[in-house]
Amino acid sequence: MDIDKLSKSLHPLERKVLPFISKHTTVDELVKETKLKDVEVMRALQWLENKEIISLVSEKVTRIILDSNGSKCRKEGFPERKVIDALKDKELTIKEIEKKTGLSNEEINVSIGALKSHASVDVKKEGNDLKLKLTEQGKKFFDKKLIEEVFLEKSFPIIVSDLKDLEKLAVDKLKKRKKIIKIETINIRKATLTDLGKELIKSKKLDIELFDAVTSDMLRKGSWKGKEFRRFDVAINVPKIYGGKKQWYRRFLDQTRDKLASLGFEEMKGPIVESDFWNMDALFMPQFHSARDIHDAFYISEPKYAELDESVVEKVKEVHETGGKTGSSGWKYDFDVKRTHQQLLRTQTTACSARKLASKNLKIPGKYFAIAPCFRRDVVDATHLNNFFQVEGFVIEENLTLKHLFGMLKMFAKEVAGCTEYRIMPGYFPFTEPSASLLVKHKEMGWIELGGAGIFRPELVVPLVGKNITVIAWGLGIDRLAMFKHDVHDIRTVFTHDLKYLREAKLL
Questions:
Q1: What's the helix, strand, coil split of the chain in %, to 5?
Q2: Is residue 393 part of a domain?
C-alpha cells in the first residue's frame, strides 16, 4: 500500500490518536492522553481498523471504580484523617472528637476500626464513654498518608490485575467499608498496531499539515495553492445509515388501501367491539349452525350487550324465522333477540359490509371496501394468529352476475397479490350463494387460498337494503396476501419487532 496516500487519507482524529497507540491501548488511556472525547477516540479507532492500520480486540477485565463515598473521601479526606488530626495534641473522648471534627458517630466508629487495623490508636473506657489516644505508630501518620489515602489518589478506573501488593492490601481494607469502591467486570477494547500501522508511524508522515476543505477565504485569497489536502477514500466500508421508513406490513396495508381507492372503491369503517347481530345474525348465519364454529369468538363480559336499531333487528329476526319477503322459508327456529345483542371482538370484516348495507349513506350503484383487524380463538401456527387483518368489500348494482365476480377476483389476483397464476374454486359461505374461493400460486409454497367470495343471499340483502338487489362480495386474509407477496413463510415475521430484520426488509 502507498504509505504517502494512506497518511494523507487520515482524518484529524486518526492523526491525533495513532501516535499514542504503541504505548496506550485502551480507550480510557487514549482519552486521557489525547484529551479527546470517548466518542471521538472510538470513532478514530474504528476508522483506523477499517484501514487495517490497527486491530481491535475485546478483552474481559476486572476493574475498580470509585463509589459515592469514595468520591467524597477523595475530595474531603477520610474521616480517620480528621480523627488523627484531632488527637494530635491530646487524648479525647468520642463525644469530644465528634464535637471537634463534626463527624457523625457512625463515621467515628468506622474511623476507629480503620485506625485500629493500622495499630494507630489505643481505646480505653472512661465512664460511659470511650477515650482515644494515638499510638507511636499512629503519630507517624501526621506527616505520612494511610495506604487507603494513597490508593484513593490514583487515577481511576484501576485494573485489578495491575495492582501491587500494598495496593491489594488497601483494596481489601476499602472493600470492607460502605460505598468507597466498586469492583466490576467489563469488556474493554484494546488497540494494537498492525505491521502497516508500524510502518506508517516509522514513515514520519503524520506531522504533515493537511486541510480538509477549500474555504471561500482560500479561494478569494488564492491561499489554497501549494497546500496539502486530505484524501477521501470513497471505497472504505462505513457504517450503514438506516433512514426512517414505515414497517413493511403497514406500508403494504396502505398500498392496498390506495390501490382499492384508485379503483373506485370507497372505504367503510366499523367497530372492533361488535355485536352478535352485525357480526353473524345480519349475515343470515343461524344462531344454532355449526358454521359459527369457525368464528370462535372472544365475547365481551362488560358491557355484555350492545344497543341496536330494533326495527332492523326485527327484520332480520323475521328472515331467520320465516324467510320474510325474500321467497325463502328461513331457518325455521325461534330467533334469540337477547343473544343477538351480545358483544364480541369482531371475527370478520363482513360485519362492516352488513353495517354499510343498512346505512342511510349507501350508494347504489356503489363499491366499498374495508381493511380491519379481526379476532378469533384460532390455534396459533406458522400461518395463523388469533388476531389478523382482513380486506373485505362489495359491489352493489342492478343485474350483476357471477362473471362480474370472477372479473373482480382476477383483478385482485393481479393488482393486489401481484401474481400471474390464479384459480377460482367452488366454495361455501353461509351468506353467499353461489360461493367461490380465490387461490394463487406461490413459487415455493404452491397453491394458497387467499379468501372467499360470492353473491350475497337475498336473506342478507333484503332486510338491510330494503329490496332485492345483486351484491357481489369478497373477503381476503390480507396477512397471507402480504406473506405471499413478500415471500414470508412465518406469520410472526409480519408483526416482528426484530430491528435488524425491519431495517433490511424490502419495500415492494
A1: 40, 20, 35
A2: yes
